[in-house]
């Protein structure tokens, strides 16, 4: 969803309030695609602070299904976004990049709400998601979810430095 900023930037102190429906149904990164299962409209307040400085304030709530870090079961993760950004509209896009203020959500005089929310989700993305604190994960041999029961795989851990000795003992067992 695009919002034209021309109206707000005309007068110093002008405020624009709006609720915008989010156009994202999935959150896509290089790591994968994650479905957005619940979302509220994005409440935005755009304020012209004078001298073409724009204050963008917003709130939104959404839920993204992310796989558990151990067993790969989808976990609904709520995101409560409450953000505030200042943008100097006097700067060109190249000058903003040089100042490390990369506003990928501003295109000329248009605000791309989906890009703004995307960047907020990215900043608030959890490092690790677990379905429960004591998640047992999956079997590294057969792939069974160990939260639903055990498997019959041999889980004896051997030190790889002792592989040669283990092979010698296995040969003597056959005799």
Protein architecture, described:
19% of the residues lie in helices and 37% in strands. With 175 residues, the chain is of the alpha+beta class. The strands form 2 sheets. Strands 2, 3, 4, 5, 6 and 7 form a 6-stranded antiparallel beta sheet that branches. The protein has a 3-stranded antiparallel beta sheet with strand order 1-9-8. Strand 6 (53-67) and strand 7 form a beta hairpin. The longest helix is centred in the C-terminal third of the chain and has 11 residues, at 113-123. The mean pLDDT is 85.
Number of strands: 9
What is the helix tally? 4
Beta-strand percentage range = 35-45%
Estimate the mean pLDDT confidence.
85
Question: Quick one: overall form?
Answer: elongated
Structure classification: alpha+beta
Radius of gyration using CA atoms only: 26 Å
For the largest beta-sheet, the strand count, sense and barrel status come to:
6 strands, antiparallel
First-to-last CA distance: 75 Å
Q: Uncertain spans, ≥5 residues at pLDDT below 50?
A: none
What's the topology here?
Layout: E1 2-4, H1 6-10, E2 15-20, E3 26-29, E4 32-39, E5 42-50, E6 53-67, E7 74-88, H2 93-98, E8 106-107, E9 110-112, H3 113-123, H4 163-173
Antiparallel strand pairs: 1-9, 2-5, 3-4, 4-6, 5-6, 6-7, 8-9
How would you summarize this macromolecular structure in one to three sentences?
The chain has 175 residues and is α+β, with helices and mostly antiparallel strands. Helix content is 19%, strand content 37%. The protein contains 4 helices and 9 strands; from the N terminus they run βαββββββαββαα.
């Amino acid at each position: 969803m695009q919002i034209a900023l021309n109206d707000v930037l005309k007068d110093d102190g002008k405020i624009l309030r709006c609720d915008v429906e989010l156009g994202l149904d999935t959150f896509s990164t290089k790591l994968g695609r994650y479905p957005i299962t619940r979302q509220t409209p994005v409440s935005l307040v755009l304020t012209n602070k004078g001298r073409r400085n724009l204050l963008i304030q917003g709130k939104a709530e959404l839920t993204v299904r992310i796989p558990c870090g151990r067993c790969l079961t989808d976990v609904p993760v709520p995101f409560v976004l409450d953000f505030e950004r200042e943008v100097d509209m006097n700067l060109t896009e190249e000058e903003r990049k040089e100042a490390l203020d990369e506003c990928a959500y501003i295109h000329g005089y248009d605000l791309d709400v989906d890009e703004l929310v995307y960047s907020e989700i990215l900043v608030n993305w959890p490092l690790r998601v677990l379905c429960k604190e004591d998640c047992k994960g999956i079997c590294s041999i057969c792939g069974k979810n160990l939260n639903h029961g055990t498997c019959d795989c041999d889980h004896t851990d051997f030190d790889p430095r002792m592989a040669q000795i283990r092979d010698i003992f296995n040969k003597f067992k056959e005799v």
